């Protein structure tokens, strides 16, 4: 029998985490544990105490200048495995899980049991201005909008995807596949590149990415910048690491836009910050 754990990494976003936990509590097939990885945020413990009935494990990483996103995901999976999970679902703190998210992911991975696979479900984006009363299954289903770049299979359908599109916002895999791909590369620090790198590690291990018509998640609104100028330094550094590893650029759209804005410049194959951006995680 599958033992599936849910993993969320977080720094700040306490309201998002509180709402997510409410929805985790309503799962039709609850996770064996919700592993929450705090990236230097001591306030997370108080948020978790608001749902004492949920099986929860808190992993606390020390504060860092830039968020260790790759290392936090690895720490979460390692802890889930220690607690007996053979399947892991990664869900960003921004996201609310549909009631069938855990069940949909579990069934999909069972169908792909003969291969190394990462499965990614549907994501719908919620607008600004929602009230607490709007955060119901019916309310988010009405308000949510699909991402234009995401593949949208029919309900229950699995469609093989390009591993360069892997995005850990919401995804599921077995612990066995995670180890085959060697997890996330912890040399990536701060924003950008680590997901695309994991997709390449998955492909290099003989694995594949699959889009699932199901396992819906609803992305809670928060302000963003596009391109993310505030993360320019990390994007440049991580893009250079990625190119040296895999031979091509990740995040091509952002790199081009940041170059056009004069924020980044390129010397040879390496990107450099022309106008220093903040590393704050807004």
From TrEMBL:
The keyword ATP-binding does not apply. It comes from the Bacteria. It comes from Kocuria marina subsp. indica. Pathway: Cell wall biogenesis; cell wall polysaccharide biosynthesis. The keyword Transferase applies. Residues 168-212 form the Galactosyltransferase C-terminal domain. This is Glycosyltransferase, GT2 family. GO terms for molecular function: glycosyltransferase activity. The lineage of its organism: Bacteria, Bacillati, Actinomycetota, Actinomycetes, Micrococcales. Gene3D superfamilies: Spore Coat Polysaccharide Biosynthesis Protein SpsA, Chain A. Belongs to the glycosyltransferase 2 family. Keywords: Glycosyltransferase, Transferase. PANTHER family: GALACTOFURANOSYLTRANSFERASE GLFT2, RHAMNOSYLTRANSFERASE WBBL.
């Amino acid at each position: 029998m599958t033992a599936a754990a849910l993993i969320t990494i977080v720094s700040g976003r306490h309201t998002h985490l509180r709402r997510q936990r409410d929805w985790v509590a309503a799962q039709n097939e609850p996770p064996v544990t919700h592993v929450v990885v705090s990236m230097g945020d001591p306030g997370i413990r108080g948020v978790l105490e608001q749902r004492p009935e949920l099986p929860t494990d808190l992993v606390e990483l020390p504060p860092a200048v830039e968020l260790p996103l790759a290392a936090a995901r690895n720490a979460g999976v390692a802890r889930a495995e220690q607690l007996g999970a053979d399947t892991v679902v990664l869900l960003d703190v921004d996201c609310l899980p549909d009631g069938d998210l855990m069940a949909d992911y579990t069934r999909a991975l069972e169908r792909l049991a003969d291969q190394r696979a990462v499965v990614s479900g549907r994501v719908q984006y919620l607008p600004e201005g929602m009230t607490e009363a709007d955060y119901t299954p019916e309310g988010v289903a009405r308000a949510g909008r699909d991402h234009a770049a995401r593949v949208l299979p029919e309900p229950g359908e699995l469609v093989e995807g390009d591993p360069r599109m892997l995005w850990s916002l919401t995804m599921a895999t077995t612990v066995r596949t995670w180890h085959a791909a060697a997890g996330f590369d912890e040399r990536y620090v701060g924003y950008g590149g680590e997901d695309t790198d994991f997709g390449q590690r998955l492909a290099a291990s003989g694995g594949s990415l699959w889009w699932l018509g199901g396992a819906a998640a609803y992305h809670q609104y928060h302000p963003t910048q596009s391109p993310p100028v505030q993360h320019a330094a990390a994007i440049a550094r991580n893009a250079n690491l990625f190119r040296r590893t895999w031979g091509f650029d990740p995040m091509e759209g952002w790199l081009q836009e940041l170059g056009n804005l004069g924020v980044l410049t390129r010397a040879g194959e390496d990107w450099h910050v022309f106008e220093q951006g903040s590393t704050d995680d807004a």
